[in-house]
Amino acid sequence: MSRPTADTTDLSWLINRIVEVDERVVSALLFSADGLVLTHSGGLHRDIADSCSASLSGLRSLQITLSGMLLLAQGESVPPVRLTVVDQSDYTLAILPAGSRSGLAVAIRGALLSLEVPTVIANVQRTVEAVREVLETGGRRPVHPA
Fold it and tell me: What stretches of 21-94 show up as alpha helix (H) in DSSP?
């Protein structure tokens, strides 16, 4: 029997729990590297989740590509991306790798440089670390013509 993954298991309870456990978290979205919604928190409309998921997967790809700028000049290996942040004065969007082919975006009420937002991000990172294996997604299956 194969292990559960984000594309074969309903993880809405986990994503909703991330929102429920901290009042500063407004919404959360688990997305695949292909730009598909894996699940999203209850307060996030599906149409918004769909369009954000597509954009977030592009941003995730950009994260990985641009991380090559960090150490390639010295010939060292490129460190994995841990976090990308969009700071919009009263709200912060934290984008974390959830698995090798998935990501988690969390909208947080508060500015990045406030005292609370880094704590919220750290708590979400710990949650992701604890369940990373199930947040993985399977690879694309080849499409065979009929």
Answer: 46-66
Q: How many CA atoms lie within 13 A of 22 on its CB side?
A: 22
Residue-wise pLDDT tens digits, 22-40: 999 999 999 998 999 999 9
CATH number at residue 32: 3.30.450.30
> How much is the pTM?
0.84
Domain that holds residue 53: 12-135
Q: In whole angstroms, what is the distance from residue 124 CA to residue 116 CA?
A: 13
Q: What are phi and psi of 8, to 5 degrees?
A: -120, -5
| Phi and psi, residue 48, nearest 5° | -70, -40
Total residue length of the chain = 146
Total number of domains constituting the chain:
1
Q: Residue 24 is which amino acid?
A: R
